Structure prediction request, 513 residues.
Amino acid sequence: MKEIIRVELKSKKADPAAVETDLLVVGYFSGSKGLDRTGRELDRRLGGAISRVIELGDFKGKSGDSAIFYGEGRVAARRVLLVGLGEKTKAGPDTFRQAAALAANKAVELKARTVALVLHAAPGGRFDAATLAQVIAEGTYYGSYRYDEYVTDNDDGRLSTLEVELIDSDLQRLRKLKAPLARGTIIGRAQSYARTIANRPGNVINPPALAQEAKKLAAGTPGLTCTVLDEKQMKQKGMGGVLAVGGGSSRPPRFIVVRYVSKHAGARKLPRVALVGKAITFDSGGISIKPAANMDQMKLDKSGGLAVLATMKAVAELKLPIEVYGIIPSAENMPGPASFRPGDIITTYSGKTVEIQNTDAEGRMILCDGIEYAVKQGCDVIIDIATLTGACMVALGKYMAGLMSNDEALARQLKKAAEMSAEKLWQLPCGEQYAEEMKSKIADLKNIGSKWGGACTAAAFLRQFAGEKKWAHIDMAGMDVFEKPKESVSAGASGYGVRLLTTYLVNLANKKD
Prediction:
């Protein structure tokens, strides 16, 4: 397999007009009365080329706009990339995350080996410089990512590495940006990791293979431990939900637990958190089989589990003073001689029984065992994340994930993390009316509700397993994939959830409500 592009990011003291690089990136707000100091100096050296393009209206500075100018010896950079930042009054941290992503995406397209970023200087002190450094780092990894492990034709000449420098002429300011740049690098790399494993097809990543990947990650990341339960161990514990879903496949299910426990004394004063991620490595729908169209995308039904695994990587590398369980129940949902069937009654890990009415409502069956495991471990807060229902996509489109919770304070914390990370959430209900729909006449529960409100009834089902614990459910259906490339990102798995969950845990560790 070909290695994914390796990105190296660091800071450097340099004058933008004098830095030697393949691509120098500067930002511009639409509606600006003129260029900033850096822009004016570059424009002067380029013979007014930048101001002419703006005056002609060929570059308006809207978000997603860009224009390339060639140095030709007038500046040290081979190319100057002007990136639009939109209206200054509407700009926020994600403006710069997206601008950095666009620049990195362009750099890969142009086969640039080196990039110098001056985006953080554009706001002129209007935003916290540390925040900008972090989001620019995150965006750099997001935009430069390509999934082409199995592309053997190398005629495109895609480079194996991209060296990116955040440059500033003020050495004292650069020193302050070093730590947030490192944080953004950790989060950016974790998200790229999630995208890579999520993109890998079902014949490469199945439950045992995912378990091995989790063990490998834990072994190579100080602070992490990994425990894997096989089908025999799950049977002994009574994890009927995971076993039922994985029963039809020749590739047996696995129950993966990655744990991080900080040695910091403050960790004992904070809630013990469980992140539970759905990892269906391929979802055919089982006996209730899905339509053939777009079934290839069902390899992405493991995206919730990968968001959890990558978040555990980030948490350990950030050395947060906290204790976190990453619980990843994994199965392949296939029709077969031992498949679970509509009409079956399954006894879950909690002891609750579930009548199966549709085998394509399998995610909740593995998550309920994961939630129960978190309860048994004494976790104070449980957050599950999954590509769970098409109904959530019908409700919210592909613009944000659904959030359901039994605790308003937890919901507020997650919405704050969503705002900071720009991985959007919209809160939906999951109360008693929806729980009533999930009651069975012949078992405790059934695994589907009526035609309406499917995202809410699915969440109400999961809520039954959290008991009195603080619990939240994130339905990321529709957020797991970019079906087409955009100005700032390539097609494929999105890695949604990594920034969101990591930001929530960072806020919790820093005691920010």
Remarks:
- The radius of gyration is 24 Å.
- Residues 171-199 form the longest helix (29 residues).
